[in-house]
Amino acid sequence: MFxxxxxxxxxxxxxxxxxxxxxxxxxxxxxxxxxxxxxxxxQKTPTREQFDLNITxxxxxxxxxxxxxxxxxxxxxxxIVTGATNEKDALRxxxxxxxxxxxxxxxxxxxxxxxxxxxxxxxxxxxxAQK
Length: 131
What we know:
Layout: E1 9-14, H1 20-39, E2 51-56, H2 62-72, H3 77-80, H4 87-96, E3 105-108, E4 113-116, H5 120-126
Parallel strand pairs: 1-2
Antiparallel strand pairs: 1-3, 3-4
Helix pairs in contact: 2-4
């Protein structure tokens, strides 16, 4: 009789308003979020399911950085924390200064994915339709 609604996936943009790249990513994510919401009522439109978009200028917590590093894998750690060579080094550099955290970073927490930078095709791939 009563259906349970699935909670929305949470997508976070660690944003830097003074960065043109970050502003482009924020605009893209807002459009994707709006399209997902509009697509929810139009069964003919193939789109990603709705998601909860969180845009923040606050730096991530240390635990969030650890999780993001796990999501991107060892080969992309330096894309998340400037000059880092491994996870331990990245966490040390982040503790020294949250300014070492590269922005923008888009994180899809529910699906375990993250991407740094403003590469639109990579962001679209990260947020591709999930079922």
